Amino acid sequence: MIREDIFGNYPQIAHTAYVDNTAILIGNIVVGENVYIGPNVVIRADEVDESYKVGQIIINDGVSIYDGVNINTIGSSKIEIGRNAIISIPKIKHR
């Protein structure tokens, strides 16, 4: 799901990026070339601070964000993920 924030900022997604249909992206987000965003990922840049400003998330080229990762700005903070970074959460396998 791709949604705007309260100010009308939509995520900007490069044509070569893959965003799984279960991922949620909201607000002032820039997704670079050849980025992978996996299932159930939540990326939000829509929290408003006391000055009525929202933050920004920049995901540079070649980044992979795997299943279930959550990335959120706090108020008007900025998050930038460097080129070719890999972000995942640890998984525990039960037998």
Automatic annotation (TrEMBL):
Q: Which InterPro entries match?
A: Gamma-CA, Hexapep, Trimer_LpxA-like_sf
Name any one Pfam family assigned in the record: Hexapep
| Superkingdom, taxonomy of origin | Bacteria
- Return the PANTHER family for the record: CARBON DIOXIDE CONCENTRATING MECHANISM PROTEIN CCMM (PTHR43360), CARBOXYSOME ASSEMBLY PROTEIN CCMM (PTHR43360:SF1)
Q: What is this protein called?
A: Carbonic anhydrase
The organism that produces this protein has a lineage beginning with: Bacteria, Bacillati, Bacillota, Clostridia, Thermoanaerobacterales
